[in-house]
Amino acid sequence: MNSALTRRTLLQLAGASSLAVAASFAARAEGGPVAAPAAGPGFASRTPVRVGAAALRVRDIERVTSYYRDVIGLTVLARGAASVTLGTGEGALLTLEPRPGAALEPPTAAGLFHIAFLMPSRRDLARWLVHVARNRTPLTGFADHSVSEAVYLNDPEGNGIEVYADRPAESWRWDNGRVVMARTGSMSTTSCR
């Protein structure tokens, strides 16, 4: 294990510590300790939680726009002097803002880990994977999280991307009120039905 601390690691540790302290204070303010969640599906699986469009500052807006359009499969929804907005028929997902003079940060710098794009189904993820394979798009990894399967890659400026599909929620395993997520095995590319 590498024991070198990076800014990203320090920020993650600080964030986790801050979250724990904030949860403790919130529980006290509500009049009691934090109760363990009940077994079975919790808030996140019962409540549609969505993040609005993300924004990235990029050096070469045309190159990065082409990547998200041609590789990821997004559509250009709006183009202006200050930004390009991409998304799907359901709405905006990503806004790119030009910063031609910006320095590229090293991979160990603090910042965005990745943007995640949820595919409608496992079959859609498989079709997209065939698309990137045919175009010889470099990938950085695959993961089977038990509740989802994911493909990882980087855009031309090094921003991390996850493209994934959830498994049906009724197949998720629960342990003491928490979803069991694992990184076991590898994704099957032969049974994407």
Write up this protein:
- This protein is of the alpha+beta class and 193 residues long.
- Among the domains are: 53 residues, 2,3-Dihydroxybiphenyl 1,2-Dioxygenase, domain 1 (Roll); 81 residues, 2,3-Dihydroxybiphenyl 1,2-Dioxygenase, domain 1.
- The chain has four helices and ten strands.
- The strands form three sheets. A four-stranded mixed beta sheet has the order 1-4-3-2, with helices on one face. A four-stranded mixed beta sheet has the order 5-8-7-6, with helices on one face. Strands 9-10 form a two-stranded antiparallel sheet.
- Strand 6 and strand 7 form a beta hairpin.
- The longest helix has 23 residues.
- The two termini are 38 Å apart.
- 12% of the residues are buried.
- The C terminus is likely disordered.
